[in-house]
Amino acid sequence: MKGAARLPRNFYAQDARVVARGLIGARLHRVFPDGREAVGRIVETEAYLGPRDLASHARHGRTARTEVMFGPPGYAYLFLIYGMYWCLNVVTERKGVAHAVLIRAIEPLSGIEGRTDGPGKLCRALSLDRAFNGADLRGPTLFLTKGKPPARVAVSRRIGVDYARHWARRLLRFTEAGNPHVSRS
DNA sequence: GACCGGATTATG
DNA sequence: ATAATCCGGTCA
Predict the structure, then answer these.
(1) Which nucleotide, over all strands, has the C1' atom closest to the CA of A60?
(2) Strand C: which nucleotides have any atom within 7 A of a protein Cβ?
(3) Straight-line distance from CA A50 to C1' B12, in Å?
(4) Model pTM greater than 0.90?
(5) Biggest distance spanned by C-alpha atoms of chain A
(6) Are A118 and A105 in contact (CB under 8 A)?
(7) Which chain B positions come under 7 Å from a protein C-beta?
(8) Which of A68, A89, A91, A113 has the least C-beta neighbours within 10 A?
């Protein structure tokens, strides 16, 4: 298969719900320092809708931690959870609007060792950590391309955000229905 | 400066 | 069911 083109900046410059749905089936590429490339197909995402979204890290406004989310679309926002695991997010919407999409699971296609059915697991498998916070998602070592479209997309509540009151009930999680690499929960 | 709790995972 | 482990947010 030929090397597909990186997803364009204007794709990321949309509402996080649109991007989260659109990323199901897309390919996530990671080129390691030694030149090896890992590729996975995104099968689970969640949309986070900025300061008004009580489940978003942006709920307390613009801080050093959330700065990247308020920046231009098409960049990576990584954060550490429970002191142990990194999670990869895609910044969406125009500059100043802190929308983001959490990549929760990918289906390994090539060059991947270890499980990728969870946000912490996939970051570990792809060696993604704080060094990638703010990284261009159209760059040389981390980028996304178009992939095989999902047969069917299921929509559900986001995972682990019960503290977010009514926002916890919003249907902002997207999965490829029936894909075995979707995280359990 | 101290305390709290989490967009998780592995293990029992 | 619970431990591992650390940082940002919050309040003093």
Answers:
(1) C9
(2) 4-10
(3) 39
(4) yes
(5) 46
(6) yes
(7) 5-10
(8) A113
Hunting for tokens 């060696």 — which residue is that? Answer: A127
Q: Measured in angstroms, what separates residue A158's CA from nucleotide B7's C1'?
A: 8
Q: Output the CA–CA distances (angstroms, integers) from residue A96 to A7, A73, A76, A100, in the order listed.
A: 21, 10, 15, 12
Q: What average pLDDT does the structure give for chain A?
A: 96
> What's the mean pLDDT in A124-129?
97
- C7 C1': nearest CA residue: A83
Q: Which domains does chain A have, with CATH numbers?
A: 9-176 (3.10.300.10)
> Among A139, A74, A147, A55, which Cα is nearest to A106's?
A147
Query: Any idea of the CA torsion for A51, A83, A109, A76, to the nearest 10 degrees?
Result: 40
Residue pointed to by tokens 């996530």: A28
Q: Hey, what amino acid is at A175?
A: T
How confident is the model over A131-177, as pLDDT tens digits? 999 999 999 999 999 999 999 999 999 999 999 999 999 999 999 99
The answer for A72, left when phi > 0, alpha when psi is -120 to 50, beta otherwise, is: beta
Distance CA A97, CA A69 (A): 8
Q: Determine if strand B comes within 7 Å of the CB of A56.
A: yes
